[in-house]
Amino acid sequence: MSAQNWEHFFKPEVRSSGRTILVQDKISITQPSDTEIVAYIRVSPPLKVSLKTKSISSDTVFVDCNCPASKKDLLCKHIWAALLATEQENPDFFENKIELEKLKFASQATANPKLTAQSKAYEDKQTAYKEQQKEKQSLYRKVQYQKQKLRMTDYKNKKNNPPEQPAFPRDVENALNFFSQNGFELRESMNKEITATAKKKLSRIFHPDHGGTHEEILELNRCSDILMKFINKLSSSTRPK
């Protein structure tokens, strides 16, 4: 069987380029055997072509190359060059061979050791990244768990120890704060006389005729009315019926 019988598998330009490789002596056949031919194409980077048969009596030659075109399942110029070189140097290899099939290249790393190193480095990097992500996720879960525990503890504390209710209603508390901020602390001794006295003294300060403002005198009257109503309410609730 001649390599020319398989030329219909290759495009004309591919056959032409393959023959150029052979003519320019850029191909070397090494490790020939009855079932395998290995050819190296002297380019940069070097390429490896493999021609294999399952046995001497097999009628099929499986071919492959580690070039980009062959990786796309194409029959490349390097394979054609290897077929021509094998026909010249080891013609018996094609005896009884009538079929030609594309075979996935089994050992690309042999032709280009850098690929193996790069792949290994990439895999190591990916493994390290995954481990880092696992550690981050584990730490995140621990932090979230601790936060949840703190929230539950805080919730239980608030449930078991509710905040103390203010001694006075909010409006009364605000009115007391108003008098306290202006120099009259009425919380401990709140009665009508003391409240009236505090109002009288503050009105002399807040009255517009004495340098105060209309808003200040209104606020004084409002707070005073709130306290008076609260005092009256306390008096009526404590009065015996």
Instruction: Compute the CA-based radius of gyration.
Output: 49 Å
Largest sheet: spatial strand order: 1-2-3-4-5
Largest sheet: 5 strands, mixed
Count of discrete domains: 2
Task: Please report which band the strand proportion falls in: under 5%, 5-15%, 15-25%, 25-35%, 35-45% or over 45%.
Answer: 5-15%
Structure description:
- This protein has 241 residues and is α+β, with helices and mostly antiparallel strands.
- It folds into 2 domains: 109 residues, no CATH class; 63 residues.
- It is built from 8 helices and 5 strands.
- Strands 1-2-3-4-5 form a 5-stranded mixed beta sheet.
- It starts with 11 loop residues before the first helix and ends with a helix.
- About 3% of the residues have low confidence.
Gist?
The protein is α+β, with helices and mostly antiparallel strands and 241 residues long. The protein folds into 2 domains: 3-111, no CATH class; 170-232. 55% of the residues lie in helices and 11% in strands.
